[in-house]
Amino acid sequence: MNSETSLLLTDLYQLTMLQGYFERGMNETAVFEFFVRKLRPGRGFLMAAGVEQALDFLEQARFTAEELQWLRSTKRFSDGFVDWLADWRFEGEVYAMPEGTVCFPNEPLLRVVAPMPQAQLVETRLINLLNFQTLIASKAARSVLVAPGKLLVDFGLRRAHGAEAGLLAARAAYLAGFSGSSTVLASARFGVPAFGTMAHSFVQAHDSEIDSFRSFAHAQPDNVVLLIDTYDTEAAAHKVVELGHELAGEGIAIKGVRLDSGDLGELARRVRRILDDGGLQATTIFASGDLDEYRLRELLARGAPIDGFGIGTRLDTSADVPYLDCAYKLQEYASKPRRKRSIGKATWPGRKQVWRSYDEQGRMAGDVVSLEDDHQMGEPLLVPVMRGGRRLTQPALEEARRDAADNLGKLPVHLALLEEGPAYPVEIAPALQQLAGAVDAQK
What we know:
Layout: H1 12-24, E1 29-38, E2 46-47, H2 51-60, H3 65-73, H4 79-85, E3 93-96, E4 102-103, E5 110-115, H5 116-121, H6 123-146, E6 151-154, H7 163-176, E7 180-181, H8 184-190, H9 200-205, H10 209-219, E8 225-227, H11 233-248, E9 256-259, H12 264-277, E10 284-288, H13 293-301, E11 308-311, H14 313-316, E12 325-333, E13 336-337, E14 352-358, E15 364-371, E16 379-380, E17 383-387, E18 390-391, H15 397-409, H16 413-416, E19 426-428, H17 430-442
Parallel strand pairs: 6-7, 6-11, 8-9, 9-10, 10-11, 15-19
Antiparallel strand pairs: 1-5, 1-12, 2-4, 3-5, 3-17, 12-13, 14-15, 14-16, 17-18
Helix pairs in contact: 2-6, 3-4, 6-7, 6-13, 7-15, 10-11, 11-12
């Protein structure tokens, strides 16, 4: 079974509800929307990501013969229902915010319009895909904001929560503005630039540290970045200077050195001095080791002469905020608006659009959420991306990356600086409030 497209990668209640819809003939058009209810502490904005993987799933998802046989063997479902699933296809419409769009609570990032059995069954996987990449892109964007112009590389695959998480984290981080990733498959599949240096084990495997440096330089003459903190960092920096002059005669330049432990700011200053005094002014310093946007901000505020950063565990797990308070909820069925009224989890009914306004400096000034036919001032953010179960376009990741950079450049100043401040204004339009009241009055 292909877990990326298997319709069994879902919650059991999706299938039990689906049998209920099947038996009642409930096949009218349903409208579901994916949105975030509220931001977690420490977050001022989100960045939409994962739409492309969501569309891939919708186009490809099918029940295989093996899966249908397994469903039949569970004795939970009728033979007629399982036979009906053999022809299941997603044939609906999807509207979404383009990947890289900055977004906020109560704003639909994605809307699905399809017959109820189709729109319902895809709920779990859509949340799974959109929640994760939006979470990671939002985290990565914060490092992009605090370290403009720096080389930022995703280093988190080995600590990610599974293979798909590591792969998609690399994509989401690159979308948000990272320079690339150490994850090779992300380069092969998505075109994310691949970056890599060497491990401490490579140094330890050689009888001397300088021999390990020399060996690596000859193996990778166009990408000589040497890890220098296996033993004594400053002593290793002096060895790099010695080797640098030796290699220059062979036409090989030492591109950079990497620090992975200790007081990175102080070590960077000492190493920079050694390299400069030894004539290796062009050799860069790259740092890694338990980094995130807060550590980057601290290091750069202290003037640490670090040219780039490898950010791993804290990025790929979004360690400080490991999930989004997100949902995929029914907003309309059989042409009637629907509304959930649960305490703390109430929804706004109907098909919605988000309009964004900007101030005189071109920065985001506020959003309005209303019914899609209640046009407001500003730029509409949701656009059609799928019709009849087939995507309308397939934007390149580079295009989403440009959109992300453009969005980050338009953030209100306090959000761009990751400072505490007023929440970004998101207005629920009167027409939407009135519809919610009318729906409530019918119950």
